[in-house]
Design brief:
heterodimer; A: mainly beta; 3% helix; elongated; B: alpha/beta; TIM Barrel; 9-stranded mixed β-sheet; 5-stranded parallel β-sheet; 31% helix
């Protein structure tokens, strides 16, 4: 893989919108051409080269390209937007919409991500070593089509609204989550290894949620049906199995009952 | 104002029977004139087509329901909002664009006049505020009458004169333009959770049928002699097998004579006819009845229609047909907004995805084009997409390229998953007709202008008319064989002169122009009963006082008022 290293030169005064930081946009370009890509600070367009020092040549295609951002991107939004292949590593934090609408490839954030990580993602992998804020793998605001595929793994904790309108794919959060998990979901899997405050699976009609910690309040729309032993992310647990949300009906169930599954680790 | 001379273009002007003759168009003080002085700014349009500014007869571009659409669909703006042109306003949205994008995009396509197709009377101040905020294009708005309590009560008692007096009052106070009827009776029935799908379904409480409402309003409209006819959105929209109701409603215009001083020849304009030309009994055997509907329309000289072509985009439906929107929501399960407008109407908003790989959507697409291709008199059949219900208005050039090129239709048809079923359910594949640019000019310029009673101002290039002139980069003598080139040329006018000012050049907006709000001031002798009824109703039923109801003059600061004197 041909590697391009971006070193931040200055901290933008406003948030920097840089959807051009993708392997697709970089492929086949010279460092000078990459530096010429457009980013926006507020509503004013600037060049990528004004914010980053760019070293190295990308590959012939997105799949052969690796981008390393050697520094903090706490104020850089939209890294890896709509990316289809290749690898992006951020050696620090990243701002909102990291890996949004992503179709393939891998993004590794060594620090934390802000909200909307992996929004409406269709494929690929996102790995966040730190924490995520809200709206991990959710749908764009107003949209009814959320994450369709791929995997998001957050090694830390996450905020609220995880996997809203989710249709497929997997979200794994290794520590705790606040509220609203898989609201309106019609598919996909969410695994939460820590505790959740509540409102898990509201209006969810299909898909699976695994909670290996505790849920403070299980929604009244969920009812316990049995206890199962299942493998979750490589380990086997005894889980209480709930179905729901009984207040919602799957729009395309056509008489056949379809429910979402909520698995909560059984008390020892 | 400066003088402009557009020289050597292929002029297409159906109002003067000019079909591609190389001629000059002279402009002075916002009007077309015969000649201009030697100091005029000369624009060479050699090898390009010169037409009048487009006239859109039916489009939802301003008002509360459009705003609800904008609010409930932030995703409609995502990746679809280009950077603002320097010194111009931000443009956002696709199916429900911001007012600025609306004005700019219409101007880029060379449109000079747009009719906002449904204004809830009580919210008319909001409609006028948005119209005023829309740059460049002239606009007017049609208040809705089909489910109005006054109208239904008067017409139940067969009081056409009182209805006319009420219409005159309402059009005046709302600064409206004509009589819009949306799902007559059905929207009122929606307050009881019901609908009127047939012409003889009774409206609860009011005990009146849709056919009585339509007939009464047709008579009242001609009694007043308004510039525009009744503008009818029929009952039973969008349901399989509705074409019989459609033809029955069109038949209600039989025997009604036009009476107006504006050159209008029709008594009924039936809008977005595509949604009303469906056969079959359910979505399984849903099929086109475009031929049946157009056979009737072609015969009936006192009817005009607009197409409402499906453009196969993700869009936002919005209509005063409240029950239909609920029906649509229960089909697609996407978000739904619904409102009741006190005493007057209701409305609903639902996003909708016309997916080319869904058989019904693809069939709807074919029906819209069939209707246009079966039109024998293009002066009475107009191109619309019922923006944004069947697709955004920015797709007009694409619709035109489909109508003009069989190749373009085939290319789209070949991408359908259910191509064979679409061919089976419609007759589109058997139609070889390709409309000419002259016919397109009739369907988008002279025809709609005459239908709206505005043929002295818009839709043509005769001296004395408004100087709305669009120049497109199309060589009329050797039209491009590639439909995409036609679409591209029509999407971005090479030049657009609006009211004598150059507002667009090569698809770039140059000026906010001088927009006008056109409204009709109906003057008729005071009708004491109607005055008393209105006063009483405002005291008893309305949540607003009668003095707070009218649209103030400052809300329409650039009016063009059409006076209509009604003799007693």
């Amino acid at each position: 893989m041909a590697k391009v290293i971006l070193t931040p030169k200055k901290v933008p005064e406003l948030m920097l919108e840089a959807p051009c930081i993708t392997t697709d946009a970089f492929a086949k370009k010279t460092p000078a051409q990459i530096a010429d890509l457009e980013v926006r600070e507020g509503k004013i367009p600037f060049k990528l080269g004004e914010y980053f020092e760019i070293v190295g040549n990308p590959g012939e295609s997105a799949a052969e390209t690796e981008i390393e951002i050697a520094g903090d991107c706490s104020r850089v939004k939209y890294i890896g937007t709509k990316m289809t292949a290749g690898l992006i590593t951020v050696k620090g934090n990243a701002d909102m919409y990291t890996g949004g609408w992503m179709k393939g490839g891998k993004i590794h954030i060594v620090g934390d991500v802000h909200s909307f990580c992996g929004i409406a993602m269709e494929g690929g992998d996102i790995l966040v070593d730190g924490n995520a804020q809200n709206h991990v793998g959710c749908a764009y605001r107003g949209d009814w089509r959320g994450m369709r595929g791929g995997t998001i793994r957050i090694r830390g904790s996450a905020g609220n609204d995880i996997g809203t309108f989710m249709l497929g794919g997997t979200i794994i959060i290794e520590k705790e989550v606040f509220i609203h998990v898989s609201t309106h979901a019609e598919g996909g899997t969410v695994i939460i290894k820590g505790n959740v405050t509540g409102r898990v699976g509201g209006q969810m009609v299909k898909g699976d949620i695994y909670v290996l910690g505790k849920i403070q309040h299980i929604l009244p729309g969920f009812t316990k049906v049995d206890q199962v032993r299942k493998e979750v992310d490589g380990q086997t647990f005894t889980l209480d199995h709930y179905i729901g949300d009984l207040g919602e009906r799957h729009p395309k169930s056509k008489g056949k009952e379809i429910f979402a599954n909520l698995y909560v680790r059984a008390a020892a | 104002m400066t003088e402009i001379l557009i020289t050597h273009g292929f002029v297409i002007d159906p109002t003067q029977n000019i079909n591609g003759d190389v001629a000059d168009v002279a402009i002075r003080d916002g009007k077309i004139v015969d000649t201009v002085g030697s100091g005029a700014k000369v624009i060479d349009a050699k090898g390009k087509v010169v037409m009048a500014g487009g006239v859109d007869v039916h489009s939802h571009v301003a008002g509360p329901k459009v705003n609800v659409g904008r609010l409930m669909r932030p995703e409609d703006k995502l990746f679809k909002s280009p950077m603002a042109q320097e010194k111009f306003r931000m443009e956002s949205g696709f199916s429900v664009p911001s007012v600025f994008k609306t004005g700019y995009d219409y101007a880029r396509m060379g449109y000079g006049f747009v009719m906002e197709a449904a204004m809830p009377p009580i919210h008319s101040p909001h409609v006028h505020e948005e119209i005023h905020d829309t740059p460049i294009i002239d606009e007017a708005a049609l208040p809705v009458f089909g489910n109005n309590w006054f109208v239904m009560e008067y017409l139940r008692n067969k009081e056409v004169e009182n209805t006319a007096a009420y219409i005159a009052w309402l059009i005046r106070v709302t600064k409206g333009f004509g009589v819009k009827v949306v799902n007559p009776g059905g929207t009122a029935a929606w307050a009881w959770g019901l609908n009127c799908l047939k012409l003889d379904d009774k409206v609860p409480y009011f005990e009146i049928t849709p056919s009585e409402i339509i007939t009464g309003l047709l008579q009242a409209n001609e009694y007043l002699g308004l510039p525009h006819s009744v503008h009818l959105h029929q009952n039973d929209l969008g349901n399989p097998g509705n074409f019989l109701t459609t033809i029955d409603s069109l038949k209600l215009a039989e025997g009604i004579k036009t009476k107006n001083k504006f050159g209008r020849t029709q008594v009924m304009h039936s809008t977005h006819i595509q949604f009303h030309a469906y056969g079959g009994e359910n979505w399984g055997n849903f099929e086109s009845k475009a031929k049946d509907v157009m056979d009737y329309v072609n015969k009936a000289k006192n009817i005009t229609v607009d197409l409402g072509c499906v453009t196969l985009d993700e869009t936002t439906t919005m209509t005063a047909d409240g029950p239909f929107e609920h029906h649509l929501h229960s089909l697609n399960h996407i978000k739904w907004a619904n409102t009741d407008v006190e005493l007057e109407t209701a409305a609903g908003v639902v996003p909708y995805v016309y997916d080319k790989d869904i058989r019904v959507c693809a069939t709807q697409w074919a029906i819209g084009l069939e209707l246009g291709l079966y039109a024998k008199d293009p002066e009475r059949v107009f191109i619309t997409t019922d923006h944004p219900n069947a697709g955004p208005f920015t797709r007009y050039p694409r619709v035109i390229s489909w109508l003009m090129c069989r190749k373009a239709r085939d290319a789209t048809l070949n991408t359908f998953r259910h191509k064979d079923k679409v061919i089976e359910a419609t007759t589109l594949d058997s139609i070889d007709r390709e409309l000419t640019l002259y016919e397109i000019a009739q369907m988008t310029r002279s025809g709609p202008a005459r239908c709206l009673g505005l043929s002295k101002m818009y839709g043509g290039l005769a001296p004395g008319m408004n100087a709305d002139v669009a120049v497109f980069d199309l060589n009329y003598k050797s039209m491009p064989t590639d439909p995409v080139a036609i679409e591209k040329a029509l999407q971005r006018a090479a030049l657009f002169v609006k009211s004598g000012e150059i507002v667009v050049r090569d698809g770039t907006v140059l000026s906010h122009g001088h927009k006008k709000t056109v409204w009709v001031n109906v003057k008729m002798p005071e009708n004491p009963q109607v005055v008393r009824d209105i006063t009483q109703c405002f005291t008893r039923d309305y949540t607003v006082g009668i003095n707070n109801y009218p649209v103030r003059d400052y809300l329409a600061p650039h009016p063009y008022v059409i006076d209509v004197d009604v003799e007693a």
